[in-house]
Design brief:
Strand order of the largest sheet: 2-9-1-10-11-12
CATH topology of the largest domain: Rossmann fold
Strand content: 25-35%
Distance between the termini: 18 Å
CATH class of the largest domain: Alpha Beta
Number of domains: 2
Largest sheet: 6 strands, parallel
C-alpha cells in the first residue's frame, strides 16, 4: 500500500489524534511502513526526539503506534503558548522566537515550504503517511497559507476524512456545516466522515447516515464507540478535568496526589504514569481550599515560570503549600522543571526570555538558583535514582540551575549545565529537571514507596508496566477502528488519493 491520508476534525478534541493513532497501528500491523505527520501543532506537551529536537507529544505517541522512530519532521512547526496571544514558535525542533498571534499568521507563508518539505521527506521514506489536522479545517479566517489542514492536503494531493464527536451533540450539523462553509476545492478533498465517541446502539442513528450522504455526497465510514479514558499522552489541557473545588481522598489504602494546575502548565503528561497506578489518585488543584491533606504535591512544568510563580502566590497556594510543608506530617512536594525552579531561591532572566522581571524571588525551599539563557536545552537524559535504578527522561528548558550552600542531589550524576535534582527537608522537598521520569517502572515504584513511607500510607508496588499499558491502549484504538470503520473504502482513499 502506498499513499497518504489526512484526518481532520470538526473541532479541537474531536478525536483526530485518536483516529490517527489507531490508523498508524493498523497499518503497522499489516507490515506497512507508516509515519504520522502534523504540520503545525499548538501544545505545551512536548517530547524530545532522538535527534534532540522538540516535537508534539501526540505525534511522538503516534510514531510509537506506527513502529517508527519519532522525528521532528513529523511535527515541523510546534507552537507553545506563552500567554493569551503569544507563542514560542519551534521550527523543525528548534525555537525560532516568540510571536504574537497576529504576527504569526502574517508570517505563516514563510513556513509553507518548511512544512511541505517535511511532509515530502516522510512520503519519500514511508509507504503511507497519516496526517493529522488541527482544530477545525473550517476556520475560514485561517485558510490562507494553511500549513496543517486541507490547504496542505490540497497542495500535496491528499484526501481527507472528517471526524466528529457525537458526545458533544450536534455532530451531523458539525459535519455538514464544515463541508458547507469550505470552498469547493477544499471540501472536495473530504472522502468520508467518522463519528467518534458513540455510546449505545448505532441503530439509534437510524437513517441519518444516508440522509447526510444525500445532502453532501460524503459517506459515513464508520461509528467509533466511546472508549473511555484512554490515558494516552494528551495534546492540550482540554483533556484535563477542571480543578477540584473540594479535597478528594483515595478510597481505602492508597496515595492522594495533588497536582497544581498552573495557568501555563506544560508537560502535564508527566503525571500520567502516576494516575495509571492502582491505589494512586491524581487530582488537579487550582485553589488552596482544594489541597486537603495530600500525600504528594506536584508542581509541574510551565511555559512561563515567573508568571506562574506569581500566580502561585496571588492564588494563596504558595502560602497553603508552605503551611503544609511546615506541618507535623508534611506531604512530599516535588517540583518538575519549572516547578523545580520555583522552589529555588532566586530566578534571574537578564534577557527577558520568559519575564520582564530581571530578578524574582523563588519559594526558597531548595538551595538552587536559576538563570534563563537564550539557548534552549532539549535532550534525552539518563540519570541514576537513589535506589541505583536508571532514570531516563528528557529536558526542555531555558533555565540553568546552580547550587547554593547546603545543596544535595537525589539523582546522579548531575549534568554539565548544572544539577538535575535537589532534595531538602529530609526527603520532603524534591526537585528535578527531568520530564518523563515516572515512565520508568522501577523508579516510579521506588518514588511512590518513598512517599508512602513518609506518610505511613498502605501503598504497595503494583508491578504495572507503563509502556505495556500504553501499547494496550493503542491496540484498543486500532481494534475499534478495525471493527467499526469501513477499511476497504478507507484504504481505497489512501491508495487512489481521490475521494471519488
Amino acid at each position: 500500500m502506498h499513499g497518504s491520508l489526512m484526518v481532520c476534525g470538526t473541532s479541537s478534541d474531536a478525536g483526530k489524534s485518536t483516529v490517527t493513532t489507531g490508523l498508524c497501528r493498523l497499518l503497522a500491523r499489516r507490515g506497512v511502513a507508516v509515519a504520522p505527520f502534523k504540520g503545525q501543532n499548538m501544545s505545551l506537551n512536548a517530547m524530545v526526539s532522538a535527534e534532540g529536537g522538540e516535537m508534539g507529544r501526540a505525534q511522538w505517541v503516534q510514531a510509537i503506534a506506527a513502529g517508527a522512530e519519532p522525528e521532528v519532521a513529523m511535527n515541523p512547526v510546534l507552537l507553545k503558548p506563552t500567554g493569551e496571544s503569544a507563542s514560542q514558535v519551534v521550527v523543525m525542533g528548534r525555537p525560532a522566537g516568540v510571536q504574537e498571534a497576529g504576527d504569526y499568521q502574517a508570517s505563516k507563508r514563510t513556513l509553507v515550504d518548511v512544512v511541505d518539505a517535511a511532509l515530502a521527506s516522510l512520503r519519500a521514506r514511508f509507504d503511507v503517511v497519516v496526517c493529522e489536522g488541527a482544530g477545525s479545517p473550517a476556520e475560514i479566517n485561517l485558510l490562507r497559507d494553511d500549513i496543517v489542514n486541507l490547504g496542505l492536503a490540497r497542495r500535496a494531493g491528499i484526501p481527507a476524512v472528517l471526524v466528529g464527536d457525537i458526545e458533544r451533540g450536534g455532530v451531523f450539523a458539525h459535519l455538514l456545516g464544515t463541508v458547507a462553509i469550505l470552498p469547493d476545492e477544499l471540501s472536495s478533498l473530504i472522502g468520508g466522515f467518522v463519528i467518534n465517541r458513540f455510546r449505545g446502539d448505532p441503530a439509534l442513528l437510524g437513517g441519518a447516515a444516508a440522509e447526510l450522504a444525500d445532502r453532501c455526497g460524503i459517506p459515513i465510514l464508520g461509528v467509533l464507540p466511546h472508549l473511555g479514558d484512554l490515558g494516552l499522552d494528551a495534546e492540550d489541557s482540554l483533556a484535563l478535568a477542571q480543578p477540584s473545588g473540594l479535597p478528594a481522598a483515595v478510597s481505602g489504602a492508597g496515595l492522594d496526589v495533588a497536582a497544581i494546575r498552573l495557568p501555563r502548565l506544560s508537560n502535564f503528561t508527566d503525571l500520567d504514569p502516576l494516575a495509571a497506578e492502582p491505589g494512586v489518585r491524581v487530582r488537579w488543584v487550582g485553589q488552596p481550599g482544594a489541597l486537603g491533606d495530600p500525600d504528594l504535591v506536584v508542581i509541574g512544568g510551565t511555559r512561563a515560570t515567573v508568571a506562574d510563580l506569581r500566580w502561585l502566590g496571588e492564588s494563596g497556594l504558595a502560602g497553603a503549600l508552605d503551611a503544609l510543608r511546615r506541618g507535623t506530617s508534611p506531604p512530599v512536594i516535588l517540583g518538575i522543571c519549572g516547578g523545580f525552579q520555583m522552589m529555588g531561591q532566586e530566578l534571574r532572566d537578564p534577557d527577558g526570555l520568559e519575564s520582564a522581571e530581571p530578578v524574582s524571588a523563588g519559594l526558597g525551599w531548595l538551595p538552587v538558583d536559576t538563570v534563563f539563557e537564550e539557548e534552549k536545552l532539549t535532550r534525552l537524559t539518563t540519570s541514576g535514582g537513589p535506589d541505583g535504578a536508571p532514570v531516563r527522561g528528557y529536558e526542555i528548558r531555558h533555565g540553568r540551575l546552580s547550587p547554593r550552600p547546603g545543596f544535595v542531589a537525589w539523582l546522579a550524576p548531575d549534568g554539565a549545565d548544572g544539577p538535575l535534582s535537589a532534595v531538602a527537608g529530609a526527603g520532603v522537598l524534591l526537585g528535578t529537571t527531568l520530564h518523563g521520569l515516572f515512565e520508568e517502572d522501577a523508579f516510579r515504584a521506588w518514588f511512590l514507596g518513598h512517599v508512602a513511607t513518609r506518610r505511613g500510607a498502605g501503598w504497595r508496588p503494583s508491578g504495572v508496566s507503563y509502556a505495556a499499558r500504553r501499547e494496550r491502549q493503542i491496540d484498543r484504538i486500532a481494534d475499534a477502528c478495525e471493527e467499526h470503520l469501513d477499511l476497504d473504502r478507507l484504504w481505497g482513499l489512501v491508495e487512489t488519493g481521490s475521494p471519488t
